Amino acid sequence: MNTNKQTNKNEIRKNIMLNEKDLAEYEKMMDNHVDADILLDFFFEKVPNFLQIVVEESENFRKESAEVLEQTN
Amino acid sequence: MAIEQGNNLNSGKKPLTEGFPVPYQNNLKTEEPNKDRVGAGIILEAEMEKRDKLRADKNESGEAKKQEELVTKLLKDYNNGNYSEILALTNEKEENEENEKSDKKIYKVYGEDDIPELEQKEEIKTTRKKTKATLAGIENEEKEGLERKFDVQKTIEEINKTVEEQEKVENIEFTPEQKQAIATEMFLKAKEDSNDKTIESSGRLKRALTKTGEWWKEVDKKTAGKAAGKALLLSGVTIGLGAILGINTSNFAITALKMGGRGLTAAGLNMAVTSNLINKFLPKKEKNPDEKKNWLKKEINLSNVASVAGIGFSALLSGGLAVPLIGVGGYAFRRILNGVFLGTMAVYHHNAEIETKGKQDIEFEKQQKETKLKEEMERQVKLKQQQEQKHLEELKAKIEEEIKLKDATVHKGEGVEHAFIRQIENNQELAKELGFKGDPSDTKVLHEFAGREAHIIAIKEGYADNTGNEVRVAEADKIAYEIKIEDGHILVEEKTVGGEILETHHEGDKFEEKVDKYESSYTKSNEIDNVPEIKEDINSPVEPNINKQIISEYEDTPENETRTEYEDTSKPEGEENIISQESINNPYHLSEEVLRKVNEVYQNNIESISPENPEVFKHIQLTAEETIKQHLDTVNQTYKPVISYIQALEKITDIHPRSTTIFQSPETNIEYMTHVLQIEASKGILLKATVDTNGITYIEKVKL
Fold first, then answer.
1. Which of B23, B80, B191, B499 has the fewest CB atoms below 10 angstroms from its CB?
2. Is the pLDDT confidence value at B94 over 70?
């Protein structure tokens, strides 16, 4: 069950790889020091399940941290 | 293959690019173009492409084999210059293809005029090949980098190993807090290193990430002011950790700047990922994209908008694996880690608290018991001390009472005044209350005072009167007459030696006409106002003449009366002489011999002054003070020797008679005579009296 879920997740992540055009656009925004708001709009437009990814990554780090701390006693 | 290392297009003078049979451009521009050769080359290229595709597809069918053979043949013909063979083959093939499929590729047959077009075509092909190769390499590199996994277990092992080694080096055992702090720092460091490698191998993303970092700095300037302070706090953790690990952390500024830099870089990210927003982010039910977007913008502020944007970028670029690229090792993930750390430590603290609490409870109970025991012991000791103190006080009071009773008890040969004198002499407080202002250690003065006061009290309390009546005890050592002062008034309690109060006399009580059964009434034969009781063993040289009465202005002869109700075992009456109480009590502590000589001089002087009537001194009702003031010319000749004797005593010794005060009675002539003789005797002088023919008495000092 988890394996399938993880596979699906990875598939989703693969699909959000920026293409050359998007990457160029992103770099241009960085060069122009755009506001975070604009950047956020960009992500919402380009990244499916954007919020979900943010939360998942934060939780991953949290779990990883806990694992380390629990086993280093 | 030879053709792929060089072809006829460049005459073997120049290497082919990428092993591809591309005509060398310079040759194309300088040599005469060969239309057949160009056309054959194009055909050959097309066939080689077809072959390569079959190779790439790993096609092992007959078609692939046939294509390999064809390319081999075409290359051979091309190298041999048999262009027409190639062209023929192509023309044949084109015809076949046209017949079979109308949409088959038709190769153009170029002429010399088409050379620029051909050159452009070759360049495009070359560029496309190079780009393909480059993109393939980048993709591979990205894939390799982004798929690099952070080895948690390896990190844990390294951390534990470091902790053990450090404990050995320091020769201490780290506390759970210290171990967790070490783990925190090492974990972040490992994470940071891992992500540095990931960034380096992130291919085309590296530049984007670098630019993202620059963008972050700009965001930080606007939003991370508050976070900077927190980052400095965290730097304290690093410094403390450094101290544990022996890392030089003396340069606080550098450490702080390092941490602050990280913190500034990741401040916004931190706020997003560590706040409650995370929980809010977790959608409980699906929202449409627009709803999510609006909701997120509403929930987060400028700084964590940037954070989420940063995370979003990482996720966007790497499919999630590069999320920590920006924040790890910095403030954001440090806070996440701290959150976990604190959670973990909370367990330790909880367990430690339970253990500590248990120990504290035991210790508290132990202390409580000890305290109670100690208090109980102290209470008992105190109680015992109080009891002992009370007992001592009672004993002391009893002893004092017994002493008082003993002092107050009339012994054999004593009257009530003897008991009074003892009490005053042995009780300084009583003496002071009665008016004694001298030095209590001066027994002589105190004794004089006690004697006078005893007599006064005896009169005031009804134990004597001015007619010579006095109360005596019926039996010695049975009754005590204790002086007490209540509310400034003197009273006398008559007690048994056991302390039982029999009767109380107050000031102003009349002399008892009817004495108690333990008392006896005694009346002196002569009416004098002070009749000292006589000590039984005093040998008086004077025989009292109780029957002789002399009537004069100085005399008063009361009616003699003796009434005895009970048996009186005290001093028999009639043995007293005219010496005073002082001679009995010996207040000047004269030796027995001296006292005897004083008495002899005393008696001899009286006999010299009034040989026929020694009792004349008793008949003079004047006090000594009054006697001294008398004029000899006006006094009766009978009393002239006596009066002149008193006056001579004062003149020669300069000792004045005691005056009358509130607290003391005036000194009588007898008292004064005794008083002066004893004082002088204490100085080694005897005062002998002689009377001339005119009846005037003179004093002669004689050394003892």
1. B80
2. no
